[in-house]
Specification:
This protein is α+β, with helices and mostly antiparallel strands. It is built from five helices and four strands. Helix 4 links the parallel strand 2 and strand 3. The protein is globular and about 105 Å long.
Length: 172
């Protein structure tokens, strides 16, 4: 019996050593590709605004021009911005813009609506003179109804005397 127990112990130990040795082996380098994990596929987001979008116009061209008090004639800075807008619109022929005319809080509602209309029309006329199809530019006046600066001093008023181009159409 002692010999049988000793043989059983040796066989058990040999079996355990085989199991332990099997667990410590390295994987086969020629294993199929399906067992190898692959790196995850990542898509990079484009940096900057979407071409032809309102944000593209704002960031890369400028979407607004400013006016002097009670005036609707374009300053040299306004003409420069509108020249960039005309070039941008030529790049995106499927787009159109609404030219919004605005005024500061001084003056009556009716006066400021008329002034905003003159400002929007002045900006549109200049774009058209630069080759933009007039059907791509519609005008609207908000007068003093949509101020961007809410205070009563020259700094605020100068920000509110403006015409703003708002993109519509594909990509807006």
């Amino acid at each position: 019996m002692k010999i049988l127990n000793a043989g059983l112990r040796v066989a058990t130990m040999a079996g355990l050593m085989v199991v332990v040795a099997a667990c410590s082996s390295t994987p086969d380098e020629n294993a199929s590709a399906t067992s190898t994990p692959s790196a995850p596929v990542t898509q990079t987001q484009p940096s900057g605004p979407t071409p032809g979008s309102q944000q593209d116009l704002v960031v890369n061209v400028g979407d607004r021009v400013f006016f002097e008090t009670d005036r609707s004639d374009l300053t040299s800075a306004a003409r420069a911005t509108l020249q960039r807008q005309a070039a941008w619109l030529k790049l995106y022929p499927a787009l159109s813009v609404a030219m919004e005319g605005h005024a500061d809080e001084r003056g009556t509602r009716d006066y400021n609506l008329a002034l905003g209309a003159r400002r929007a029309n002045a900006a549109k006329s200049y774009l058209v003179s630069l080759g933009v199809d007039p059907s791509r530019v519609r005008t609207i006046s908000y007068g003093k109804e949509r101020p961007v600066a809410l205070c009563s001093n020259e700094s605020c008023w100068s920000q509110n005397r403006r015409a703003v181009s708002v993109v519509s159409g594909a990509g807006s």
